[in-house]
Amino acid sequence: MSKITLAKGLNMGLRKAMEDDPKVLVMGEDVGKLGGVFRITDGLQKDFGEDRVIDSPLAESGIVGTAVGLALRGYRPVVEIQFDGFVYPAYDQIVCQVAKMRFRSMGKIDMPIVIRIPFGGGIGAVEHHSESPEAQFAHTPGIKVVACSNPIDGYWMIQQAIACNDPVIFLEPKRQYHADKADLDEGATPDPLFRSRVVRRGSDATLLAYGPTVKTALKAAEAASGEGRSLEVIDLRTLSPLDMAPVYESVRRTGHAVVVHEAHVNLGLGSEVAARISEECFYSLEAPVLRVGGFDTPYPPSRIEEEWLPDLDRVLDAVDRSLAF
Amino acid sequence: MTHAGFGPDLAEVFGPGQHGRPHDGGPELVQLLTPEGERVSHPEFSFGDGMSAEDEAEMIRGFFRDMTLTRRIDTEATALQRHGELGIWAQLLGQEAAQIGAGRALRPQDYVFPTYREHGVAWCKGVDPLELLGLYRGVDQGSWDPAKYNFHLYTIVIGAQTLHATGYAMGMQRDGVVGTGDPDRDAAVIAHFGDGASSQGDVNEAFIFAASYNAPVVFFCQNNQWAISEPIERQTRIPLYQRALGFGFPGVRVDGNDVLATYAVTQAALNRARDGQGPTFVEAYTYRMGAHTTTDDPTRYRLSDDVERWRLKDPIERVKAYLQRNGLADQDFFDAIAGEADDLGARLRAGVQELADPSPLSVFDHVYAEMTPELQEQRDGYAAYLDSFEGAH
């Protein structure tokens, strides 16, 4: 057992995947000598060499587009997009090429590419460094989208994503990289990758979160318990496909659901989650499913980002509104 | 090794690449003022032609002042970041000559598309440095009016602005302000970017559009040798300026630490554009003396030897040496500039603290030309929510 941060968990997971499979390559801007701007690939180039940990030219479409070619050649590229807001030059390659290759080839071609994207806000950065683009990818058939929320999941989920024969957008809550530590048991059996998980049991309402907002939801549940309210918290973990069975089970018990994400509310993941809950749990619901997220504006200047991002108070406010409905 | 039919081995033409980088920029480097402060001549570019000796000296003293004050903006902002007054800062240390040379070659009607590091060009265009600090403090995302200064907002997504610059130049063509022969009317655009950006698709597409339409744009690349941790060899195997030829327009490599040469070359490139002769690529060969930004630690990926070698090419010291050696500026002049820099530093230190945080509700402003009903509803809901805390604490 060792105490690790999310950054360390991801680093160890990448290392393990590279040790286990010589076809795993890491590529991106500054991932080699520097170890990435967040140090997630720290030490990998030193130990695995420049052929397997590749500092790329500064060109995101090039990074993803060449990863397609490497995958066609039998490699398993793990590419890093330095910040969420810089993924868009690669968007065409991701949605038109990566996502459709299996379908077009009628199953003859695998695209085992992992596209790692540090996402979300709260680090006081300038624009394009704090965004939550997950819905733009979850909307695209053919790619899978997951978000880790804690150090242990970071360690396991990155390995599982690399082992997956479908392309995976792997979202890492950058605010959490160095925030908390947890005990890693490398001998444990991890949950499957495409499963959501109840992370706190409760009976009055269900909070649904992923990535950076899992911590927010857990804090809200803790605060609510002081007021005699029992909130269940589910970490969705997989955004496409969604794993809704634990969500339905929970909402049928609590009758109240609140979805929390940093992304804009309009057509965010919460919209899909709310629609599915209303389809499956209609007679169990005692209130409409509520969504708490970033406002439908561009990400704000950093000095007011904490007001823009959903926080404990805004989550509890939504819980109040749901319970008072 | 050569392969028949494919011409000479590129390594013979351009050097061995990875380990063969010429620190002096190679023989093609246009230089008019050496690192030691000696004026040298160049067959195609010159500084001061047609000017009186006094006007020329006055201009060079002006460059010295611009570079000194720009460096003070940079060091002051770096310190303010360390003190928590700024969230981050992108340093220009070492690139003062490239920016002042380019910035002073502009006419009022010319238009600038900067990266996020063009603090010296912003200075030349009259943007208050405090407005630059606002962005890096995180109170706004660029508060100046681009049309007032002919200086676009800083662009953070690497290279995106080169296409905007090209489109703006195409607009100038259509407005009839290119090639009229009237120096007060003919205009051009300058697009700033770095060596890293040269790898981006957008930049290469900008080259193609500009060449195709003969757009009046100068692609001004500050090759500061580093894209965060990646050396120039990761972006190109040939000197960057030589890429221009493949796109169908001329390129030139200028000593970006030589303000006289940068001014002369940029002015000539802008004149080509204004005259209707189309785009030019200027590679200002320089060095990023500081970190990529204040969050970066360059000791992890580069040698201090390299930095020390470039310190000897300091853009400001060589101008100072020239002015002193030739009796063109006395101690009073240098003292006055130092005093002005101190005043500027004090103004920035005081002013940055007055850059107030915006209201949380301001985030709903300017999303659309007119507030949409659903966004208005969201804003009202948030305002009521914020009001619910009044008196609660």
From TrEMBL, chain A:
Record-annotated membrane-spanning stretches: none
Record keywords: Oxidoreductase, Thiamine pyrophosphate
GO molecular function: magnesium ion binding; oxidoreductase activity
Cofactor names: thiamine diphosphate
Location of the Transketolase-like pyrimidine-binding domain: 4-179
InterPro entries: THDP-binding, Transketo_C/PFOR_II, Transketolase-like_Pyr-bd, Transketolase_C
Origin superkingdom: Bacteria
The UniProt record lists the keyword Oxidoreductase: yes
PANTHER family: PYRUVATE DEHYDROGENASE E1 COMPONENT BETA SUBUNIT, PYRUVATE DEHYDROGENASE E1 COMPONENT SUBUNIT BETA
Full protein name: Alpha-ketoacid dehydrogenase subunit beta
UniProtKB/TrEMBL annotation, chain B:
SUPFAM superfamilies named among the record's database cross-references: Thiamin diphosphate-binding fold (THDP-binding) (SSF52518)
A single BP term in Gene Ontology: branched-chain amino acid catabolic process
Cofactor(s) needed: thiamine diphosphate
Annotated region described as Disordered, given as residue ranges: 1-27
Keyword check for Zinc-finger: no
Pfam short name (any one): E1_dh
UniProt cross-references to InterPro entries, sorted A to Z: Alpha-ketoacid_DH_E1_comp, DH_E1, PdhA/BkdA, THDP-binding
Protein name in the entry: Pyruvate dehydrogenase (Acetyl-transferring) E1 component subunit alpha
Source organism per UniProt: Nocardioides islandensis
